[in-house]
Design a protein that fits this description.
- It is a single chain.
- The protein is an alpha/beta fold.
- It has one domain: Rossmann fold, CATH 3.40.50.2300.
- The protein is built from three helices and four strands; from the N terminus they run βαβαβαβ.
- Strands 1-2-3-4 form a four-stranded parallel sheet, sandwiched between helices.
- Strand 2, helix 2 and strand 3 form a beta-alpha-beta unit.
Length: 84
């Protein structure tokens, strides 16, 4: 599983996920950001976590992404990590 920030100095999380999945197509991807990237990531089809987030929400989302019945993600899922 790849857990990456969307915005990084050398390569975006979206570009990193593309590069890694080229050789590991079964790899799950979850991206996070403190910016306004959620819609882009969700449209791209990856799971998205808005920063800041609570540890329990991170663990919940990782479990969900890892336990998707098929090996390919069927679109992104955003958790509102600012609540509860």
């Amino acid at each position: 599983m790849l857990l990456s920030d969307v915005e990084m100095p050398q390569m975006s999380g979206l570009d990193l996920s593309d590069a890694l999945r080229a050789t590991r197509p079964e790899m799950r991807v979850m991206l996070m950001s403190g910016g306004d990237n959620g819609l882009l990531v969700l449209n791209y089809g990856w799971a998205y976590l808005q920063k800041p987030f609570m540890a329990v929400k991170l663990l919940q989302m990782v479990a969900e992404v890892l336990h998707t019945p098929d090996r390919l993600q069927s679109g992104g899922r955003e958790f509102d990590t600012r609540k509860g």
